[in-house]
Amino acid sequence: MVQSASRQDPRLVVLGSGTGVPVGGRRPAGHLVLYAGRGLLLDLGPGAWHAASRYVRFQRIDYVLLSHPHLDHCLDTLTLLFTMSLVPRQRPGPTVMASRETLRQVEHWVRSTPGLSMDLVPIRPLNAGERVSLWDGVELTTGAVAHVAGSLAYRIDFPDGASLTYSGDTTWCLTLVQLAYRTTVLLLECAHRHPSSPHLWPESAAVLARWAEAEQTLLTHFYPDALTPAFRQQCRRFFSTPFVLTRDGATYPIRSRPTAIEPSSRVGEQVGR
Ligand SMILES: [Zn+2]
Ligand SMILES: [Zn+2]
């Protein structure tokens, strides 16, 4: 828990900073946004749904935003639907939001799984460039990114001026720079040590963060070659703005002003300047 921040303040918990390749105990993609006692999930890779319950009751998770149809980002949507099929429900489960391409892939998995149905939760298809109200005064904006068909990045703006922009998976693209422009927290994939389409690497991630004028950058989604001292050296070399290599279980405040990054209870590895 963040000791200096109120429970009302937005914060981010990294549930999974890894990928589909098991390494270092890092789960596939999953990130939890907590705000005023409610929860929102950015991607739902394997294990993320149950991991989130350590920080918030699942009944208080209002939204699940899926970035793209790869399994390491959305397979646990099936686990979420299974949960909804097991528990008595006084209210609808979390609204699952994603591009039509991503929803089509999830629906394909769901159709072949006995007992599951997309009707177990509200579904909200999203287009690129769309703006949607989440909680009171909290706005979501979507942007297309360069990974696979239907890949979306998400920006969440809070009433006090704080904002979180999540890249999902992408390689270098100007649409992400535009979406993330002057965001206070940029949650950015940096999957590999060297250029590897369709992903980012330290140099491209650093340029993207600088062009976006992001106040803080949290790097995530590390393949094995990104979990090396050489990768950390490259990050130090190329980043001219504050950055952190995130770690599963670390919590980061989403602040409106530029301040030092203070990961709390289980501290992420800080290598920023
Ligand atoms: Zn992907
Ligand atoms: Zn991925």
Q: What features would you describe in this structure?
A:
With 273 residues, the protein is α/β, with parallel strands linked by helices. The protein has one domain: Ribonuclease Z/Hydroxyacylglutathione hydrolase-like (Metallo-beta-lactamase, Chain A). Helices cover 21% and strands 25% of the residues. The protein contains seven helices and 14 strands. The strands form two sheets. A seven-stranded mixed beta sheet has the order 6-5-4-3-2-1-14. Strands 7-8-9-10-11-12-13 form a seven-stranded mixed beta sheet. α6 (202-212) runs parallel beside α7 (229-238). The two termini are 24 Å apart. Mean pLDDT is 92; it is low at 265-273. Bound molecules: zinc ion (2 copies). Residues 19, 29, 70, 72-73, 169, 221 line the site of one zinc ion (ZN).
